[in-house]
């Protein structure tokens, strides 16, 4: 389904913005094996889109560049799990629904695609069904879908700690012109964590007086993604794609999440778009997207 037709065909639509880990520090590991993280997170003005419409029976359809990848996902799809969990919580108010997912982001790529889709499903169905859940109940439900889903429900700049459930807004974070780049090669998140040389790394400590883009870029540059070195061992293309972004003028490059998506921050959107044009010419088989992140004050 063409992007421009989604809003016309479905009564309710939701954006599922790409989640960008500007920093990710692994600070420990719980007894249940969950890793403790400190993350500086923002969201891009691009991503998947979902449409919702009353239906005689539950229906799920797909489109978009990466839609076919999910076509055989069945009951493991986070959109369907989100629908079913929310229906259990609200009972008879939850009439059958047609959900359409326009899958524009690469699958399992470290930018929260599935989690963002699940969060958008919760938001969209609450609108369609004309109901809401208490904040605590919604937070508990979203965490059942994955540690990234509470963050994606917010879809604004934030710091997340613990396993991702301790969220603090960052209204001072500015918008950035960025390029998202992915070699479309999978990386195993469990294997990345297994290869970490240390699980108790220094936490994320940001100065309280950061003001303006230059200050924030310097602070992000000092921070790190502890998952990037082991991910580069598993997928050498991550190193190559980071070097390509730097060669095209990125002020800062880093891997997001557990990879393999990297981002480059550019001076302007025009510079980011110019870089994407060149990068597409060099590797037309890879994923490149120029976009802008949302600001904390938006």
Automatic annotation (TrEMBL):
GO terms for molecular function: 4-(cytidine 5'-diphospho)-2-C-methyl-D-erythritol kinase activity; ATP binding. ATP binds at residues 106-116. Residues 77-153 form the GHMP kinase N-terminal domain. The keyword ATP-binding applies. Gene3D superfamilies: 3.30.230.10, GHMP kinase, C-terminal domain. One of its GO terms (biological process) is terpenoid biosynthetic process. Keywords: ATP-binding, Isoprene biosynthesis, Kinase, Nucleotide-binding, Transferase. It catalyses: 4-CDP-2-C-methyl-D-erythritol + ATP = 4-CDP-2-C-methyl-D-erythritol 2-phosphate + ADP + H(+). Coiled coil: none annotated. The active site is at 19, 148. Pathway: Isoprenoid biosynthesis; isopentenyl diphosphate biosynthesis via DXP pathway; isopentenyl diphosphate from 1-deoxy-D-xylulose 5-phosphate: step 3/6. The keyword Calcium does not apply. Its EC number is 2.7.1.148. Residues 223-276 form the GHMP kinase C-terminal domain. Belongs to the GHMP kinase family. IspE subfamily. Catalyzes the phosphorylation of the position 2 hydroxy group of 4-diphosphocytidyl-2C-methyl-D-erythritol. This is 4-diphosphocytidyl-2-C-methyl-D-erythritol kinase. It comes from Rhizobium sophorae. The gene is ispE.
